[in-house]
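Each record in this resource describes a single protein on a pair of labelled lines. With that in mind, the following record should read easily:

===
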Amino acid sequence: MSVSNSQINISRRQLFTRRKDADKPNLPWVKNQLFTDVCTQCGKCSNACPEKIIKSSDGGFPRVDFHQGECTFCYQCAEVCPEPLFHPKTEPAWQVKADISDACLAKRNVDCRSCGDSCEPQAIRFKLAVGVVAQPQIDIDSCTGCGACVSVCPTNAITIKNL
């Protein structure tokens, strides 16, 4: 007996297939509660993204890959989507923020400020301390979740996570 894709409850499959990505953002402005049920994986959002950061992820669903670059919040992914998956552009793009792990060079006492240099809203600043190199600190209120800091990090110590 074969089962067609229309009979598979994709939202239940999410429990098993994308568990490792549960705290990572899908797309800006997307209605997360509808995402796996309504997205048809047509690829229009990926093709429309001028930064080419929207990639096919588990199950063929689109997901932002900040290792490719940053989100400029252009809204083109939402404009081309044929499904009612996106909130209006007037609403906040998402509730994701940068997070710096212990793999950060500065936390290992090696001077590096790549993330701070790439952060346009200056949400990542470096605090001077005696006996160690300046340490990165994220102003969560200023962080837009654009991901500009991710691709420039030489140790992949930065991730963008859902709050």
Remarks:
- Residues 70 and 148 are 5 Å apart (CA to CA).
- The chain has six helices and six strands.
- The chain has two domains: 5-80, 96-162.
- The two ends are 42 Å apart (CA to CA).
